[in-house]
Amino acid sequence: MDNKLVRISKFLSYVLRHRPETISLELDESGWARVDELLTAAQRAGVSLNEELLRQVVAQSDKKRFAFSEDGLRIRADYGHSIPVELGLQPVAPPEFLYHGTARRFVASIRRQGLRRRGRNYVHLSPDEHTAIGVGKRHGKPVVLVVQAGRMHGSGFTFYRSESGIWLTEEVPAEYILFPES
Q1: Owning domain of residue 136
Q2: Quick check: is 82 in a domain?
Q3: What is the pLDDT of residue 140?
Q4: Low-confidence spans in the chain with pLDDT less than 70
Q5: pLDDT at position 1
Q6: Is 118 among the domain residues?
């Protein structure tokens, strides 16, 4: 994605996941915003955004962060919210292992506390190591933690899978994490 699309994607993440009120945008209880209202609010906020550019960002997002409604009139973030939204996700049994990408500097804290939501609605887990490495790179030198998701599920933890394939759960206690050797 080119720099302009990256900037627009970050803007969309901010307003659709965390702070819609900063541009006077209203989301419904499921996190949907009307596309026309988003475009108007973005223009008022000084963000040059039109429907063609919006559709390009959604189509080219490698992490599939956003989705349009079936009729194309609404848009929402598929995961990553820090505001209360009901995404309508159904619990699903996870694979035996999932992955979490982080930076090396956070490993000691995760060993003590496990993975926590930290202001988001869920802990995000990747379906494969490659995706987790990409996530970890955003925070520094990447480290991939292996989460024993099947074992967690068997112990009563609930998992959800977003439309984009990201796995979500409320927490991952350290006892379910396989840490790489230093």
Answers
A1: 98-178
A2: no
A3: 84
A4: 1, 62, 182
A5: 64
A6: yes
User: Do 111 and 162 share a domain, yes or no?
Assistant: yes
**pTM to 2 decimal places:** 0.79
Domain of residue 39, CATH code:
1.10.10.970
Establish if 86 belongs to a structural domain.
no
Burial class (CB in 10 A: 0-12, 13-18, 19+), 7: middle
